[in-house]
Amino acid sequence: MCFRGIARIRRYYSTLAPDAAYYFPAGGTEGADAQTMLGVTYGRSALWFTTASTIGIVNAALGGTMVALLVEGVLQLPRAVALTAAVVVALGLAIAVVSYERRRFASALG
User: Fold this and answer.
1) What phi-psi label fits residue 78: left (phi over 0), alpha (psi between -120 and 50 degrees) or beta?
2) Residue 47 DSSP one-character state
3) Domain residue spans in the chain?
4) What is the mean pLDDT of each run of 10 residues along the chain (110 residues)?
């Protein structure tokens, strides 16, 4: 939020004098300008390496482990079935975390 406000101020400054646009370049939307001020560019894989994603991936692994324990210990199914279920659940949870984070980044950067 603060970076968007700063981007708005920089955009206003660029209109004050004819040569001010050179010193206060605008890249497009306020969100894009705020991202440019941070010197950050995000690729498709960048969301896998944030702190929130790291915590989400660990939680996904724990969720998969709990499913494996449930399937093998409580339901008495073979270990291969338990491991397959664990991998499917862990991958599903990891993808859910990153897709949620992608939506949040997109709304924040506008």
Assistant:
1) beta
2) G
3) 1-41, 42-110
4) 72 80 68 61 72 92 96 94 96 92 78
